[in-house]
Target: Alpha-galactosidase
Amino acid sequence: MRLAVFVLASALSAFALDNGLMKTPPMGWLAWERFRCDIDCENDPKNCISENLFIDMADRLSEDGWRELGYVYVNIDDCWSSMKRDKDGRLQADPKRFPGGIHKLARYMHDRGLKLGIYGDMGTHTCGGYPGTPLDKIELDAQTFADWEVDMFKYDGCYSNATEQEKGYPLMAKALNATGRPIGYSCSWPAYQGGLPPKVNYTQLGEICNLWRNYGDIQDSWDSVLNIADWFFENQDVLVPAAGPGRWNDPDMLAPLDAEEQRLYSELLPGD
Ligand SMILES: *[C@@H]1O[C@H](CO)[C@@H](O)[C@H](O)[C@H]1NC(C)=O
Ligand SMILES: *[C@@H]1O[C@H](CO)[C@@H](O)[C@H](O)[C@H]1NC(C)=O
Ligand SMILES: *[C@@H]1O[C@H](CO)[C@@H](O)[C@H](O)[C@H]1NC(C)=O
Model:
């Protein structure tokens, strides 16, 4: 049994994205499910997408014992950026809601043993209508995130088509690698292509992404949780072998639970 586990693990890691990250499933906090695209900081200062929200979460993770359990990622989702790129064409944070900028926020995380994740989109615009990272902006934006010392990047797929995604997701993997900074790479690609073969190639995903969103967003309801759990259950024969060190299925906010199940599955399989 032990030998079998070892052989399986090394076979998997040979095909995983080679950035040394996420040998175990990433754990942390992401803003979207609860805070959405609330940008009304005047009327809703506690809940709006602003640096204060992420600083607040960082304090909770580091002061309330979560960090010690492994919850180290604090991840920004959509609606963080300014509607306009800067004079050099770079993405920039909304100046009112993130007056300190993303680099300073990343330092805040690092000072507390945490990591910062950020969000972009393969299309012309993000799902929320902010500037996207289409094919011709991939290298520039990857470098910007590396310059800001960001630790993880979620690449969404709104306003892009299958042809662009086929080019863009691997290109971003190369661009992130070329920055020289290890940046965990989360691909929403399969969620835009139905989540299953033949449209989705999980072998390829494992080579270019550390994790991938397979299926729809989780909504704030138990029905939504059940719906996602059912889909993963029904398709487990495809999904379980896709996962391993450095390469994980991501059922959205169920990630910690599902990842633990995946770990158990991958340990149990060789002995079956
Ligand atoms: C880039 O890719 C090479 C080859 O796969 C790997 O050895 C290296 O660690 C990667 N670097 C980063 C920063 O991801
Ligand atoms: C996808 O989008 C690109 C660029 O916007 C366009 O040139 C191409 O025709 C589109 N492809 C399909 C299959 O819709
Ligand atoms: C899936 O991707 C792998 C690795 O990139 C490739 O070798 C294989 O041919 C692809 N499979 C299909 C059906 O396209």
In short: The first helix runs from residue 2 to 14. Residues 161, 163-164 surround 2-acetamido-2-deoxy-beta-D-glucopyranose (ligand 2) (CB under 6 Å).
